[in-house]
Amino acid sequence: METIAEFNDNHGFNVKLTDEKIFIDAAGSSETIALRGLTGVGLYDDLEKYNKELEEYKKDQKGVKVGKWMLIVVGVLALFGGFPDSIVPAIFMIAGGVFLEKLVSFSPKHKKEPILDSYFRLMLSGGDRKFKFNKSDESSVKIADFINKVEDTLTAYR
Q1: Cβ contact 151:29 at 8 Å
Q2: By three-state DSSP, how is residue 19 classified?
Q3: Is 115 a member of any domain?
């Protein structure tokens, strides 16, 4: 079998196209699919999941910023309040406000910025199969070229 095209994203996703089959090695699965059973191929981005995670992330960041400014304002008010025994706590409050974002990022409950999940999608006569891959690096152009070669191969069977 002659290899027509091959794609490897260096993150555990490898797809090889021959004149009869597609060989797929992805995280947690390895499959071989005959081209004669394939009705289509494409990319799928899970935008719904990404938008939901992005909204939660923005809410989390907004709460941190509000807390940061509250600490700074209360610290400044206590500092200028003129009470001699409130100077040290006021300085700690201002410093805590300044470094709050960095302190929160070390917390295990802190949410990381979401990543868009992308899938290599094969439409089969009995349904479809999705294989997750990392689209955020420079290999996304290669996967588009690979899909074009698969589509060219599919039209040869019709």
Answers
A1: no
A2: coil
A3: no
Is residue 53 in a domain?
yes
What are 108-144's pLDDT values in tens digits?
A: 566 778 888 888 888 887 788 887 777 766 666 777 7
How far apart (Å, rounded) are the C-alpha atoms in residues 153 and 120?
Answer: 17
| Segments forming the whole domain that contains residue 53 | 48-105
Q: Cβ(91)–Cβ(81) under 8 Å?
A: no
Burial of 121 (0-12, 13-18, 19+ CB in 10 A): middle
Q: Which two tokens stand for residue 1?
A: 């079998």
In sequence order, what DSSP letters do the residues of 26-85 get, joined into one string? ETTEEEEEEGGGEEEEEEEE-HHHHHHHHHHHHHHHHHHHHHHHHHHHHHHHHHHT--GG
User: Are 5 and 149 within 8 A, CB to CB?
Assistant: yes
Chain mean pLDDT for the chain: 77
Which helix (H) or strand (E) segment holds residue 140: the answer is helix 140-157
Q: What is the pTM of this model?
A: 0.61
Asked if residue 94 and residue 81 are part of one domain, the reply reads: yes
- The HSE-up count of residue 60 (CA atoms within 13 Å, CB side) is 16
Choose among 154, 153, 129: nearest CA to 39. 154
